[in-house]
Amino acid sequence: MKVTPPPVKVAARELALPVYQPEKIRDPESVERLRALAPDFLVVVAYGQILPGSVLAIPRLGAVNVHASLLPRWRGAAPVARAILAGDRETGVTIMKMDEQLDHGPVLGVRATPIGAGEDAVALTSRLADMGAELLADTLASFDELSVVGQDHKQATVAPKLSREEGELSWDAGANEIDRRVRALQPWPGVTLPTPRGRVKVLKGHVEGDRYVPDVIQLPGKKPAPAKQVLGDGPGARRAQ
Asked: pTM of the entire structure?
C-alpha cells in the first residue's frame, strides 16, 4: 500500500529527463506545459484519462495510442481481460491515431498473437506490452510511409472496467467459465469460490474434463498455497458441481 513511481518515471529519472504528472490533463496549466514543448508526437499507453481536443491538437504529427486489442474489438479499459473472458483465440496490439472518442481513431499498425490455453491476464499483458513497444517503435520510424486505415465501427465491442462482483463465483458456473474468469481477473479483482473453509481466492487452476481443479488458492489474510494442502481432495477443491 505504498505510493511508488511508475516504471516510465523511474526510467526517465535515470536518463535525466523531466517528468510531469498532472492530476488532470484537461487543466489549463497542463495543456500549456504540453504546448510549450512543441512535440512532434504524443504517445499514450494505458492512460486513464481521455485527452481533450485541446491536447490532441498540440503535436505536429498527431497523438498515437498503443491499445492492447485488435481494434475495433475491445475498445475501453479492460481489453486483455475481456478477450480472455470471451474465449477469444487471439488478440494483439493496435497503434491508432487518437481522436476525441474512446479508441475510435484510424489504425496505423496492428500485430496479432494467439492467446495461450492456460495464459492469464498478467502473462498476456506482459507479452502485449513488449509487442506494443516494438510495434510503436516501428510505426513511428516509418510514419511517413504508413497507410492510415479507418476502423469498421459497426464491428466495435466495448471492454468496460472490471468489477469485484465478476469474480464472485459458484461452482455451478461450469468448469470452462471458471477457468476463463480465474485467468482473466488476475491480478484484480480475482475469483473467489465457496469451499468448506469458506470463500477462497483461486489464483491458478486447470480444467479436467467437465470439472475445474484449483491448483493455487489463498485464504483471507494468508499467503497463496497449493489447493490440496489447504482443502484436501474434496469436491469443493476438485470440481465444478
From this structure: 0.92
